[in-house]
Design goal:
single chain, 125 residues, alpha+beta, Ribosomal Protein L22, Chain A, 3-stranded antiparallel sheet, two-stranded antiparallel sheet, 32% strand, globular
């Protein structure tokens, strides 16, 4: 077993500005429909939820970067950050199989100004 990790922190204002300036172009480049519906449902805190998912995707890319080679690429929308029935965040790869990835765990948090995510990937040897 081999373990890799990834961490990312982002200013929520950066994501808010990108969404406000680029509107649907930014949203449709980074997030899939499930993620957009989830974040939009958060009303006044939607930017925190968009930002933490952005940080999560960055952290995921860092944790799996050893597999991101010419023959295997992952785009923003290939990675979905969803919640299980208990509200715990989970990672789902859309139409992608990350070879030798046994499991991936994610933790996310946000406050008024920042969003942060940590990812631990466990690999088969």
């Amino acid at each position: 077993m081999r373990i890799t990790c990834g961490t990312d922190i982002i200013e929520i204002e950066r994501i808010k500005n990108a969404i406000d300036e680029e509107k649907t172009d930014f949203l449709n480049k980074i997030y899939n429909q499930n993620e957009i519906e989830y974040c939009e449902g958060k009303k006044y805190m939607k930017y925190q939820h968009y930002a933490v998912r952005f940080a999560a995707k960055e952290a995921i890319f860092k944790a799996i970067s050893n597999k991101l080679k010419d023959k295997f690429s992952v785009s923003w929308k290939d990675v979905e950050v969803i919640n299980d029935k208990n509200g715990r965040p989970m990672v789902r790869f859309i139409n992608k199989k990350v070879e030798d990835l046994e499991s991936i765990e994610i933790s996310m948090s946000h406050c008024k100004e920042y969003a942060v995510a940590n990812v631990v990937a466990i690999w088969k040897e």
